[in-house]
């Protein structure tokens, strides 16, 4: 029985495409490793900004690390900050232009280690900015070193026998700390490992952005994420490892919400 010749031009039509690229995502190939959570979060940020009609008034601040490349992919105004200093720069931008939607996009090594002071004090002051925090428990870009968020027993290039609390201290739970600061109005921890999780993360980002524009104070949206390369796992195994170990230390959910927003 002769097989039918497939006409690709007939199949690849907009109505047949499951994934629609958000208009604010630049038409360039993403360089992130397979299974990396950054690409999914970029998509959510781009969609929320477009949904809010803030394309011309959104300003992102990206520092150093894998997170820095956000400016290549989301078509809004960006400022690049020195390592860890994104909340300080975002503070200046928001105070100069209070009508702008200002957010930072940071990894855990940047936010929870090198930029701990800037992060904590910006949140405590109640700056009307949003901090998007990608937590994959490792320094992903620079070789897989231990981060403040690295789990007890987790092996990295700088703790090859596993993180030992007596030697290295304990994982730093930034989100729980942020929830206790009087300047924060919305503090949440999400993930993007399932469709349901992606939808919930998008709602969280939208609420944080809306709270910022209403002048309610600081918001922190943590996304528990994978680093397949740094963890030396396949994308599927990385998601499994994250669910088994990361969620045990970094519980998901809202930790503070005084916004009254849905």
TrEMBL record:
One of its GO terms (molecular function) is thiamine pyrophosphate binding. Residues 71-222 form the Thiamine pyrophosphate enzyme TPP-binding domain. PANTHER family: 2-OXOGLUTARATE OXIDOREDUCTASE SUBUNIT KORB-RELATED (PTHR48084), SUBUNIT OF PYRUVATE:FLAVODOXIN OXIDOREDUCTASE (PTHR48084:SF3). The keyword Oxidoreductase applies. InterPro entries: 2-oxoacid:Fd_oxidoreductase, THDP-binding, TPP_enzyme_TPP-bd. It comes from Hallella mizrahii. Keywords: Oxidoreductase. GO terms for biological process: cellular respiration; small molecule metabolic process. This is 2-oxoglutarate oxidoreductase. The keyword Transmembrane does not apply.
């Amino acid at each position: 029985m002769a097989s039918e010749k497939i006409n690709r031009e007939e199949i690849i039509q907009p109505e047949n495409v499951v994934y629609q690229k958000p208009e604010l995502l630049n038409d360039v190939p993403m360089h992130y490793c397979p299974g990396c959570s950054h690409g999914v979060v970029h998509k959510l940020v781009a969609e929320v900004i477009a949904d809010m009609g803030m394309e011309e008034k959104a300003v992102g601040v990206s520092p150093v690390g894998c997170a820095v490349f956000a400016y290549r992919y989301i078509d809004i105004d960006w400022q690049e900050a020195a390592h860890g200093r994104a909340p300080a720069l975002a503070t200046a931008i928001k105070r100069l232009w209070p009508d702008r939607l200002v957010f930072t996009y940071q990894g855990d090594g940047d936010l929870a280690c090198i930029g701990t002071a800037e992060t904590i004090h910006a949140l405590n002051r109640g700056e009307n900015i949003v901090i998007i925090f990608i937590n994959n428990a490792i320094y992903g870009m620079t070789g897989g070193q231990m981060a403040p968020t690295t789990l007890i027993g987790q092996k990295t290039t700088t703790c090859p026998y596993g993180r030992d609390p007596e030697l290295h201290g304990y994982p730093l739970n930034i989100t729980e700390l942020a929830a206790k600061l009087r300047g924060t109005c919305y503090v949440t921890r999400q993930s993007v490992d399932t469709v349901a999780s992606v939808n919930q993360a998008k709602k969280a980002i939208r609420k944080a952005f809306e709270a910022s524009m209403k002048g309610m104070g600081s918001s922190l949206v943590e996304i528990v994420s994978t680093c397949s390369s740094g963890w030396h796992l396949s994308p599927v195994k990385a998601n499994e490892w994250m669910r088994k170990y990361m969620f045990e230390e970094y519980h998901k959910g809202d930790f503070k919400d005084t916004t009254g927003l849905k």
